[in-house]
Amino acid sequence: MNADARRFLGWFFCFATVPWEMRPLPFTLLNGETAKKQLPASVPGGFAVFDYDNDGKLDLFFPNGAGSHALLRNKGELQFEDVTERAGLHESEFAFGATAGDFDKDGFVDLVVSGLKRVLLYRNRGDGTFDRLDAIDNHGRWSVASSWVDIENDGDLDLFVVNYVDWRPEKERECLVNGKPDFCHPRFYGPTPNALFRNDGGGKFIDISDSSGISKHRGKGMSAATADFNGDGLTDIFVTNDRSFAFYFRNLGAGRFEEAAFDVGIAAPEDGKPVSGMGVDAQDFDNDGRPDIVYTALRDETFPLYRNTGKGFAEVTSPSRMSVLTRSMSGWGMAFADVDNDGWKDIVAARSDALSPTGGRGSAAMEPPSWFRNSRKGSFTAGTGWDALPRAMYRGVVAADFDEDGCVDFVFTALNTAAQILRNPCESTGNWLKVDARVPGTRVRVGQQWRYVTTSTGYASSYLGPLHFGVGSAKEIEVEVFLPGDVVRKMVTPTNRTIKIEP
Amino acid sequence: MIFALLLFFQSLSEQGARAMKENRFTDAERIYRQLVKEEPNEPRLRMNLGLALFSAAKYPEASIEFEKFLKAVPAPGPGHFMLGVSRLKLRKPCEAISALESARKWQASSQVVLELGDAYFGCKRYAQAAAAFEALGDTPKGLQGAGLSYARLGKQQEASDAFAKLEKLPPSAELHELLAEVRTLENRHGDAVKELEEAVRLAPKDERLRRLYARALWRAGQYEEARKVYASLVARWSNDPEFNYEYGDTLVRIEGVEAGLPLLEKAVKAAPELIAARGALGKALLQIGRTKESIPHLDAAAQQDATVLLPLSRAYKAIGRLQEAARIEAEYKQRVSESQN
């Protein structure tokens, strides 16, 4: 239903408020938690949103912890069917995140899955099935997330792998919180280096972690956001670390990176206290054309928000009021999304504690999801309409217009419960535009807004689909698309439609 | 002549007692100082002077008078109790222990045992603290102190049992205040707020509780709410450096540096030893570009709090002292990494 029709119907149903509606999906995220509270059970929950069969509808791939992965095909009208077996993806591998990207450029989107012991690469055959390639050797490290990124602008998607801690089951210790066994603090586990694999074509990936400079830095990585943060034409990589300094890998070109988080002012919040960095998103929230960064952290740490100044980053967590809004929250998944189509990106968070609901904090570990409305002047207010949403151990969230009504919906994962799709009632009268340009590294300007095509979003999750823009009252709008390789497309288009940009 | 002097002393002594009774502690202090000058070898006068000073929150001077009293009257008695409590007020719990142990020999009342338990706890002698608090039975303070002591000893079951009993006591402002202390020590600042909300609801006229409530809100990052409570307390607490630090920090966070800076400056001027306030002032000055002024405050705060090294490094970088900036940043990375891992 387009915005005009909604306005028209609004006269008949004036003041009738349509609630946000949460519907279960046929997938349950299992973390295999036992009384021993082994750390991996705390960490699952990322997933990928992409169109695996090129039918124009966004499908869902969920890696699982203690159960099989699942591929859910979008049949339309928010109906999904489980096609995991048919697709050859019925595998049980304790896994945490998934990232979609067409690494072999055959027009079908492939998948990479981050696991406790290995990184799995699934090539999309194009006939609705996938085959697994043993192309990525992550040296047995625990990977939580990954990102497809063209590091050299050669048109091939390379793979950045976010590794977490050095965890060994035989060395797991018992930790108590409020007298009850619970997951241990990350300080009890050693850091590990991240990894970078160069795509040399033909399904061949070369480990360039050392030569690129990536492996020089050991952290406790949880998620990555990629964008050309400094405007030099090369994609940089920001990595959240759990209770240690964040990494900012500045792309120097020719496959080399330098870690420069301190130089650009984003290693730790301004007060100097490193936080439990979890999920992260990088988009332009203040419509100044530069990708900003927001990430989740745990209770009393706030969700840090950084504005890209062009010369680095300025932390705006306090002046934006995000500090006040999020101080009592723990978060995992995170996304910039224009919830109300007003032309300003809001922030959505999947929330829960890192501790277990059967541990020291009890059911207080479960929290409801939240959104924060961008009030346009650099600050945020608490979003409305989600008060009745249930508490759970939410982990991942991805924003996408699943029912194609022009408003972003949200899919959430939560531990040991069915994944949920939260349908946007689309009560806003704001117009919208979707720009379908699925080449990572592409920048899109719609009016004064910008979005960047990336393959990673939020917590260990991925979105590869049309970019959604709320455009307020605009009936037509100027669009500029900057594809990698300095190809620029410029047009003026009516709103409330999807435009496809061919590479 | 002697009779006249006796009458004079009697009159002054009565005036001192009346001043104490009427909470005119400054007057009482003046009167007892005069009496002590006239009768320097009369220990009871020193005790009274000490009590007047203690009541006026002049703990360092009160301690000195109690010590002098105890030199003359060394037997276990109330002087030991007052000296112990004064040292606790001065945040010298280890130095308070011997005085309070002597006081317990004089009178093992619940008040003496409670203060002794606090002294043991503050001095990290948790086993003795637990025993002292256990001796208070199932009272709010006894259960709270025992629970905290057991938690520090790693005796989680005993700690949980004590806290469970505490939570089951009949609701009172005192109970909720004590539960708030527990939540604060567990870094559960949001829960501490809830407890103090209840305490304030039960004792709405208690300004001390409202002061604690404001602090809990501030610690929990609920700055909008904290601001309202702080604003309502300005009349009473405006000369309290800690109050000004917390209120100033709150205003900096929600209204900007200009709003909170005067309070932070006032706090630091009155109490330069309040290191946390100096850290907050340094960060505020740095934010508004008064970089050079920020450095001494950040430098002082960094001695206690390694996280302040990061803004200090940024300050040096901003004024072009790049070598110092690099050195401090390296120190920050090292010290904070060590504390995180």
What descriptors fit this protein?
A: 503 residues, mainly beta, 5-stranded mixed sheet, 4 helices, 41 strands, 5% helix, B: 341 residues, mainly alpha
Written description of the protein model:
Chain A is mostly beta strands and 503 residues long. The N terminus of chain A is likely disordered. Chain B is globular. Chain B starts with a helix and ends with a helix. Chains A and B meet through loops of A and helix 10, helix 19 and helix 20 of B.
Please write out the topology.
The complex is a heterodimer of chains A (503) and B (341).
Chain A: H1 3-12, E1 21-28, E2 48-50, E3 59-62, E4 70-76, E5 79-82, H2 84-87, E6 95-101, E7 110-115, E8 119-124, E9 130-133, E10 143-149, E11 158-163, E12 165-166, E13 175-177, E14 180-182, E15 190-193, E16 195-199, E17 205-207, E18 218-219, E19 221-227, E20 236-241, E21 247-253, E22 256-259, H3 261-264, E23 280-283, E24 292-295, E25 305-308, E26 313-315, H4 322-326, E27 331-337, E28 346-351, E29 370-374, E30 380-382, E31 394-400, E32 409-414, E33 417-423, E34 431-436, E35 443-446, E36 449-452, E37 462-464, E38 467-472, E39 476-483, E40 487-494, E41 497-500
Chain B: H1 2-21, H2 25-38, H3 43-55, H4 59-72, H5 78-89, H6 93-106, H7 110-122, H8 126-134, H9 140-153, H10 156-168, H11 173-185, H12 189-202, H13 207-219, H14 223-237, H15 241-255, H16 257-270, H17 275-287, H18 291-302, H19 309-318, H20 322-340
Helix pairs in contact in B: 1-2, 2-3, 3-4, 4-5, 5-6, 5-7, 6-7, 7-8, 7-9, 8-9, 9-10, 9-11, 11-12, 12-13, 13-14, 14-15, 15-16, 15-17, 16-17, 17-18, 18-19, 19-20
